[in-house]
Design goal:
Elements lengths: L9 H11 L1 H12 L5 H4 L3 H4 L21 E3 L4 H4 L11 H12 L3 E4 L17 H13 L3 E5 L11 H17 L3 E4 L9 H20 L3 E6 L10 E4 L5 E3 L5 H8 L5 E6 H10 L2 E3 L5 E3 L4 H7 L6 E4 L1 E5 L5 E5 L8 H8 L6 E4 L12 H15 L3
Parallel strand pairs: 1-2, 1-14, 2-3, 4-5, 5-8, 8-11, 11-14
Antiparallel strand pairs: 6-7, 9-10, 12-13
Pfam family, one: AP_endonuc_2
Protein name: Sugar phosphate isomerase/epimerase
InterPro entries: IolE/XylAMocC-like, TAT_signal, Xyl_isomerase-like_sf, Xyl_isomerase-like_TIM-brl
């Protein structure tokens, strides 16, 4: 492979390697790996190839999730990627798992790190440029596209040079893999206080600018706690912190103070419904209890372009576990995905990733892949 030219300025080098010449760089990497890029799938940038967010497209009976938008986060089948291929006839390691997921019909995957069993092709750790090229060759071999990763987001703020370099390494890996997005599996902060969310927004805005220069959308994946109410007024506690709320939710505030041009989100629809169950009243600044029921679809509609990714995870009702739901394979629960996807529209923009946290089983080694197949079938069956 021809060596990539660098300059003394690392940011300029990053732009040169991962910005304007991104497609050429990816094509070169893929050619070296011995796999061709399928132009109809990978040729156009999604921002240009898709209708504007908010337009649903299609008529009655249209599938709510187009075939090329049906994805899965590999965390669902983490036991399979981590399985020893020398001790099992089941798909094991990234390459064989990709092959199996493609057989079900999936067209997209989201990574949850780049580790697999040491005996799988490529070895245990593929978190490198060489590992990314190998992964990309397998993705192309089976007609899959990587759409994101729950990976490295620096804990430090202000950013240290070491963390900045590590972050840029992950951007390079993401570009080799052909991703349009790179993110994390955690909330911007676990705090309930406005000041901490302001700091989180400053950090994510800075990281988002670095990612944007690399041609990637940086996203945060959110759990139920992020939809709790922001503590932003009322009497102060003994540490001088507010104890009551104006009724704005923490993530709503983050959407307000983060940059819509460089910071993106991935809604986990299951956890958003858990938040709907848990966080429906708050104590106002005047001490009164007020009701405000969370509507996940309405939040997406209000910020549609900022939600390129979803986690499509299902649940059955359980009023005894504190969450309101138990996780089940996608399509076997009670969360009304048909209505959700109809309301948010933009079906050619959003990328739903099937997820089930508890799919792996200690007694049934094939369960996670079985549930992945069930999830695909039910995602594909959703119609207007």
């Amino acid at each position: 492979m021809t060596e990539l030219h660098t300059t003394p300025d690392p940011d300029e080098a990053l732009r040169s390697r991962l910005g304007i010449n991104r497609r050429r760089f990816l094509s070169t990497c893929t050619a070296v790996a011995g796999a061709a890029i399928a132009a109809p799938v990978f040729g156009a940038a999604p921002a240009l190839a898709q209708p504007a967010p908010g337009s649903s497209g299609g008529g009655p009976g249209t599938r709510l999730v187009p075939a090329d938008k049906r994805g899965i986060i590999l965390y669902t089948v983490r036991d399979a990627t981590g399985r020893d291929p020398l001790s099992s006839n089941l798909p094991s390691g990234f390459r064989e798992v990709f092959k199996e997921l493609a057989r079900y019909g999936y067209k997209q995957v989201e990574f949850a790190g780049y580790g697999q069993h040491a005996n799988a092709p490529g070895g245990a750790n593929l978190e490198s440029v060489a590992g990314a090229k190998l992964l990309r060759s397998w993705l192309d071999e089976y007609g899959l596209r990587a759409q994101g990763n729950h990976g490295f987001i620096p804990a430090s703020w202000p950013l240290t040079q070491a963390d900045t370099d590590q972050f840029k390494k992950h951007l390079e890996i993401a570009n080799i893999l052909g991703m349009d997005h790179m993110g994390t599996g955690g909330d911007p902060t676990g705090s309930s206080y406005k000041a901490d969310w302001d700091v989180a927004a400053d950090k994510w805005n800075a990281l988002g600018r670095i990612a944007d220069r690399a041609g990637l959308k940086l996203y945060t994946h959110n759990h139920d706690a992020a939809y709790g109410f922001l503590l932003d007024g009322g009497p102060l506690d003994d540490q001088g912190r507010p104890t009551r709320s104006s009724g704005i939710r923490k993530l709503e505030y983050f959407l307000r103070v983060s940059d819509p041009k460089t910071v993106w989100l991935e809604m986990d629809i299951f956890w958003a419904h858990v938040a709907q169950y848990k966080f429906h009243t708050y104590t106002a600044h005047d001490g009164s209890t007020r009701e405000k029921v969370f509507d996940p679809a309405a939040l997406v509609v209000a910020h549609n372009a900022r939600y390129p990714l979803f986690h499509a995870k299902d649940g059955t009702r359980n009023d005894t576990n504190g969450m309101g739901y138990d996780m089940v394979p996608f399509g076997e629960g009670v969360i009304d995905y048909r209505t959700f996807f109809k309301r948010v529209g933009a079906r050619n923009y959003h990328n739903p990733m099937v997820e089930q946290d508890n799919a792996p089983s200690s007694t049934d080694p094939a369960q996670s892949l079985t549930h992945a197949r069930i999830g695909y079938d039910n995602l594909a069956a959703l119609r207007k």
